[in-house]
Amino acid sequence: MIDLYTSPTPNGYKASIALEEMGIEYTTHAIDLMAGEQKTPEFLAICPNGRIPAIVDRDAGDFPVFESGAIMIYLAELCGQYLPTESRARSRVIQWLMFQMGGIGPMMGQANVFYRYFPEKIQPAIDRYQNEGRRLFGVLDGHLAKQQYLADDYSIADMANWAWVRTHRWSGVSIEGLEHLSRWLGDVGSRPGVQRGVKVPVDIAELMDAKKKEDADAFSNRARSVVTGADTGNA
Question: Which stretches are annotated as coiled coil (predicted)?
């Protein structure tokens, strides 16, 4: 049994998507980032960095794992799915997982800060992160022109990148003209496990698409206090 500590963020969804895709039994504990629950002593005992998601493997002596990418690798190895054991195939998956963790996630996260949350609109910063996000999307699009998924077969690399790229409208990053990326978004998003995973602990798809302006503005206002405190609580 896995205990999942999470919030409705791209990194949180990475963990819940993996759990759903792998068919691993788990219990969800929703962490309220706005209330600072990620900084409580109880949560810090699980995740010293004070960020979601985190898991505890109750069947392995209450073994805690933090950092979303590390969680995905741990779960994939636990169930023997979505991460090959052959060295080169495994490396390809991990390379694209690191691409998300080192590129897509940080750039889109900073685009969110300056485009959505920061009280002042600093256009050079907005342009910087949106343009880099678009460049990284182009890298994905070029790679996906040659194959259906990022690393041979469907893997944790697809789950991780998809959880972030799907929120491109919230970051103000266009995918217009990126036909292979758009096809891949649809392919991954049509999977039942993925669809279940993005509803844990709650589904905020409409908000991330920025279709409901009032709700989006209210969310941004609440998030602003976390961002200006220099900690999103999201890993």
Answer: none
Q: 87-227, what's its fold? A: Glutathione S-transferase Yfyf (Class Pi); Chain A, domain 2 (1.20.1050)
Characterize 97-119 residue by residue with b for buried, 16 or more Cβ atoms within 10 angstroms of its Cβ, and e for exposed. bebbbebbbbbbbbbbbbbbbbe
Question: What does the alpha-carbon distance between residue 150 and residue 51 come to, in Å, rounded to a whole number?
Answer: 27
Q: What is the pLDDT of residues 37-55, one digit of tens each?
A: 999 999 999 999 999 999 9
CATH no. for 2-79: 3.40.30.10
The pTM is what?
A: 0.91
CB 57, CB 63: distance < 8 Å: yes
Delimit the domains of the chain by residue range.
Answer: 2-79, 87-227
